[in-house]
Amino acid sequence: MADSEKKKDPPKPVEKTSDPIISQIGDFRRYQLFFCIVIFMCKFGTGWHTIGHIFLAAPTPHSCTTENVTDPCSDDCHETEFDHSTFQSTIITEWNLTCKNATLASLSQSIVMLGVMFGSMIFGMLSDRFGRRPSFLGCCFMQLICGLIVCVSPYFWFYCLFRFLTAFATGGTMTTSFVLIMEIIGPKKRELIAILYQLPFNIGHASLSVFSYFLRDWRWFQFSITIWSCVFVIYICLVPESPRWLFTTGRVDDAIKILEKVAKHNRAPTDTIREEIEAGHKVLAARMPSKKGNLIDLFRTPRMRIKTICMANNWLVVCMVYYGIAQYISKLGGNIFINNLIAAGLSIPGTLLCVVLTKYLGRKVTMMLTNSISAVGLLALVFLTNAPMNIQVMCATVGLFGASMTFPNVYLWGGEIFPTVVRSNGVGLCSMIARIGGFIAPLICDLAMFRAWLTPFIFGVFSIVAVIGTIFLPETRGLPLPETLEDGENFGRKQRD
């Protein structure tokens, strides 16, 4: 019986490439498909926790109930009340974040972005040092526990602390999950998967309007976007260590064991894996220093330094524009649920369109095009701040649509441009820099209280700066991943020389 099954399903030969890992398991077969689907599930939570502030701190009108006083922020007003017709409770009503304390609401979101920033960087470093799997599992379960504690926050600063810790874990989830995927996918499907990786985040963003519509109490809303993380338990059994990381760090036997299991799932030959991986590692070891890469290596050589700075600039701008405009739309007025559902919903086709653009135009042209779209929508809004509300929402949505196409591209491009020995450090650094943009985005949104045109103007100018910075980055479409620091320094040399 076993012999007959072998005849029916003989191993399918794998195309041999310069990549020793992909040469054993195939570019993209059924194991990689299954692995991507499993990892994608964690991205819903990243969208919920990073953008949930839109509804946790939703604009809530309040009025003064003191006789003959109309201004609720006046010193003569001794008692106020909130309008609970839209939301039963928010953090605004919970801790009276109005008048002199109004900026605390935006500060709480800046604290979240600070958490994502440090989480991306620190978990990226831990991932390069101790492995992708332990770092990934650690941040997944930290996100679940801290997110649930947020639901029972008795004080505002307690809420901020555990939102910070939840965001810290979320930043780690973003970095480690992306690196896990990038290191097991071949170049033929890399752009498709790296871009589709952003899709659950977009769906998570859009679904926030649905959660909030049915759950008008902020505590139950927070609980609903956190409890999904219980599914992370399956990762203990289904997520192995990255064989590419094991291979690069010298743990060849462990890499071979995982590659043999993956090859069996992919119905690929396994008889030559040990021989080819050991030979490949000898070649790698001969041209790679024994010490592991670190953050300093990203700036040690001139070409790598330019790539790191320009790529980090792209991440900074897209994070600032995406999160800033998402929050800005919620403050424009009208129906907060519909406005956010439409704006976030358009990011889904934006991400899908990015698949086509990066495939046929490449990463570089696509990056310049999508940042230009954001700039056009936002700078048009500068001159339309007195226009009807639906016109303003439409312009802001164009800016968000452009950023929705830029976001998956920076993940894809960043994962391709950094060599394996510092890939998590590189992506983690870029993600950290991006969160600086996310940190100041809510504060930039508050500038609209002084001059309505200031917020879209600042976001629009930064989008133009990103277009200029992209000029200095090399195209990576269809090229093998760089492995060593030398590979990273020389990567793109032919395109520019």
TrEMBL record:
Coiled coil stretches, renumbered: none
Compartment annotation: Membrane
Record's GO cellular component terms: membrane
Molecular function as annotated in GO: transmembrane transporter activity
Record membrane topology: Multi-pass membrane protein
InterPro entries in UniProt: MFS_dom (IPR020846), MFS_sugar_transport-like (IPR005828), MFS_trans_sf (IPR036259)
Chain ranges passing through the membrane: 31-51, 104-124, 136-158, 164-185, 192-214, 220-238, 309-330, 336-358, 365-385, 391-414, 426-444, 450-473
Keywords for the protein's UniProt record, in alphabetical order: Membrane, Transmembrane, Transmembrane helix
Source organism of this protein record: Drosophila grimshawi (Hawaiian fruit fly)
Protein name as annotated: GH23022
PANTHER family in alphabetical order: SOLUTE CARRIER FAMILY 22 MEMBER
Domain Major facilitator superfamily (MFS) profile span(s) in chain numbering: 38-478
